Amino acid sequence: MRLELSEDEVAFRQEMREFFTTKVPESIRDTVKGRHELTKEQIVESQQILNDAGLAVPSWPEEWGGRDWSNLQKHIWYQEMDRAGVPHPLAFNASMVGPVIAAFGSQEIKERFLPKTASLDIWWSQGFSEPDAGSDLASLRTTAVRDGDDFIVNGQKTWTTLGQYGDWIFCLVRTDPEAKKQAGISFLLIDMKSEGLEVRPIELIDGGHEVNEVWFSDVRVPAENLVGELNKGWDYAKFLLGNERAGVAPVGQVKRTLASAKEWAKTADRGGSLLEDPLTAAQVVELENELLALELTALRVVANSADGKPHPASSVLKLKGTELQQAVSELVVDLAGPASLASGSNENGTESALADWTAQASQVYLNHRKASIYGGSNEIQRQIIAKTILGL
Amino acid sequence: MDFEYDDEQRALREAVRDLLNDAYGDWEKRRDASRTDEGYSTKTWQQLAEMGVLGLPFTEEDGGVGAGTVEIGLVAEEMGRVLAPEPFIPAVVLAGGAVAAAGSDEQRQAHLPSLADGSALLAWAHLEPGGRADAHAVDVKASGSGDSVTLSGTKEPVLFAGGAAAYVVTAALEDGGTGLFLVDASADGVSASAYATHEGGRASKVVFDGVAAQPLGQGGDATEVVARLLDIARVVAAHEAMGAMAMALESTTDYLKSRKQFGVTLNNFQALVFRAADMYVQLELTRSLVLWATMVLDAARESGDSSDVADAAARASLQVATAGRHIGQEAIQLHGGIAMTAEYRVGHVLSRLTALEHVFGDKRVHVAALSKGLEEYGEYDPLP
User: What is the pLDDT of residue B184?
Assistant: First the structure.
């Protein structure tokens, strides 16, 4: 047993820290730290800076920009991005469609898409969920029927995050309606400017527009946009979701927010620092300790996953990570108190007398309720733990 | 970075696990041991001594093997898995640890080899009526100096004092601070009365009435030594609690798979398996934090800089307190009525966890301690 990082790992951490705090514009990092919404331009700019330095897609095969890093190095890379307030590379590109294309796509598809996916010259949307296919993803009904050199796609996708920015969408579509649920699904890449494709915004409880419905009416998609083999899409989706779960515990981000919350607590009450209130302090201590346990669990997992098999404790990460993310966002609302009502004070040029962070508090809290739902709801995570680890 | 045991540590774990399974794998044997005067099996204690377990923390010159917290912790975890009642923490980690840390050559030679070989027991007499989790003695006072020190006052509860040859006693010094003293159990002026504790152990009220006492080493204020020993004991106790929690979860999953109600086994009910999943989450989080604290302690032992030790011990204890209550309570609920019976093992996990939490400071104590430092840092960084 050994707690220290190796010399190389310490140097690596220093290199990442240096890069993220000096090469990514402060305006972008302040937007993240202030918990404001990033614009599309900010996300693209940040990823391009990372990509130019070879830091956007380290998990990809080396010939397409990957870095052959250890899991611990990837963990440090994430942590240091979070610490500096650097937005992660767009997950749809970097950890979802990119690895699938690299692993299963034809040479032609790889050459056509991977460089632009890494550089975010193509903004990908995810077309998995449907109104009747949430956690039960294989129930999806969007169809693709072969017609000459094309597929004709019909149906509806939903919860398409940031779909309003999307250039292309990767979709799971049903190509064999006769086959059993999982067996008749294919993985198709669709240009979002195609005729018959329509993106409709869904307004959420925080007032934001983050997710969308995507409708397909007789959308023509060239058959060459099929990734891998026909009717093998479910295998690719499972591969993708496995990647998604690995980076899903938002440890660094929650840590940074909790550290900010402590700063905010000092000025949140005109009677003095709220950290001197024993109940508030106790709340912070308990959250910080749970977060420490989670971070150490993540380190335990990454330090010991050299043989490629997932560490059993990795299933704890998404479940507990999102619970703590929600709990910290709840704490910030409590710290803001009555000022948390002033969520509109940033708009219409109002010069609010209230601190900027208080205006975000309620919206972020409401928005984060999604965290225990997406990426396999926490009930699904409990089911996985019960079945595959405890054998129940 | 590495959170795994090495081969030698795994071998130690297997050996201790085998020994303890023979001793207490059958819950009836644990009940039998708890019914003896000592409250534990002297045979098992002797076997642990022969395996070198009772001398783990001490140097070879003192009759031990000079092991680190990792090894001591994994022994405690195995003891926790079968709820072994032997006084490993009070006798070896605390009383023996105090002699090792503060005693003279002569005192170490007089007490540590015999503790390590199982021939004599030391008791840790620190807790006092009204005392909580701190390193100070108040009620027991030391008077005089040098060779003519006497102690007066009451220690209670003193764990497993019954069979002890000597006590390691903390006492308030005349000019402030807390000193460490050795007192012969048969000395004039010592009166001890023993009773059973709720988790099957033994404790005593020990009254000192002008009893002759030997200061450990040079004497003087040993508050720092006591504080450090308590921190080590907290982390070792965290391992023991973790073993008990792991056993409770295993027992619960086995039970859910075998017990039938309404014609099906209980694992057909999602409400129940989800609760077992949450127990698993708590246990894994606890393991990460406890292993980390163990490594912090061993790093401090090597570097001689113990500034991080109290903090790490408090963090591990806080997580154990939270997880222990959760897992202990849920284990009983998911087993149903059977877990309430004395002849079934799992309910006793909560009893043991409750004892382990309170003996070195409960959740409130650790939250309060950690609250004090909150403004001194932003993000908490667990890596050196």
Answer: 97
* ipTM for this prediction: 0.94
Alpha carbons A378 and A372: distance in angstroms, whole number: 5
Q: What are phi and psi of A216, to 5 degrees?
A: -120, 115
Q: Which of A1, A83, A319 minimises the CB distance to B2?
A: A1
- Cis upstream peptide for B157 (omega within 30°): yes
Interface test mutation site (partner A, options B254, B325, B366, B383, max chain A beta carbons within 10 A): B383
The dihedral built from the CA positions of residue B240, B245, B246 and B252, taken in this order, carries a sign that is positive
- Residue/partner pairs of A20-26 with CB below 8 Å, 24 or more apart: A20/A80, A20/A81, A20/A83, A20/A84, A20/A86, A21/A84, A23/A49, A23/A53, A24/A49, A24/A50, A24/A84, A24/A86
Which regions in chain B score pLDDT beneath 50? none
Q: Does B375 touch chain A (CB under 8 A)?
A: yes
Q: How many CB atoms lie within 10 A of CB A291?
A: 23
Q: How far apart are CA B69 and CA B294, in angstroms?
A: 6
Q: What are phi and psi of A311, to 5 degrees?
A: -70, 135
Which 315-374 residues of chain B touch chain A by CB within 8 A? Answer: 315, 318-319, 322, 367-368, 370-371, 374
Q: How much is the pTM?
A: 0.95
Q: Which residue has the tokens 């996300």?
A: A43
Q: Taking Cα atoms as reference points, which of B309, B243, B263, B220 lies closest to residue B20?
A: B243
* Residue B183 burial (C-beta neighbours within 10 Å; 0-12, 13-18, 19+): buried
Give how far A255 is from chain B: nearest CA, Å: 6
Q: Are A275 and A266 in contact (CB under 8 A)?
A: yes
| Distance of alpha carbon A256 from alpha carbon A361, whole angstroms | 15
- Residues 287-316 in A contacting B (C-alpha not used; CB under 8 Å): 288-297, 299-300, 303-304, 312-313, 316
Chain B residues in contact with A74 (beta carbon < 8 A): none
Q: Which two tokens stand for residue B180?
A: 């460490």
Minimal CA–CA distance to A344: which of A163, A222, A206, A234? A206
Q: Other CB atoms closer than 10 Å to residue B219's CB: what's the count?
A: 18
Q: How many CA atoms lie within 13 A of B126 on its CB side?
A: 26
- Distance between CA atoms of residues B126 and A270, nearest Å: 44
Residue A151: Cβ within 10 Å count: 23
H-assigned helices in A129-248: 233-246
Three-class HEC string of A74-114: HHHHHHHHHHHCCCCCCHHHHHHHHHHHHHHCCHHHHHHHH
Which of B49, B181, B161, B63 is CA-nearest to residue B111?
A: B63
pLDDT number for residue A346:
74
pLDDT digits (tens, 9 = 90+) for A242-259: 765 556 678 999 999 999
Q: What is the distance between the alpha carbons of residues B299 and A133, in angstroms, rounded to a whole number?
A: 51
Residue whose structure tokens are 């409770």: B248
Beta-carbon count within 10 A of B279 CB: 24
For A181, the 3-state DSSP assignment is helix
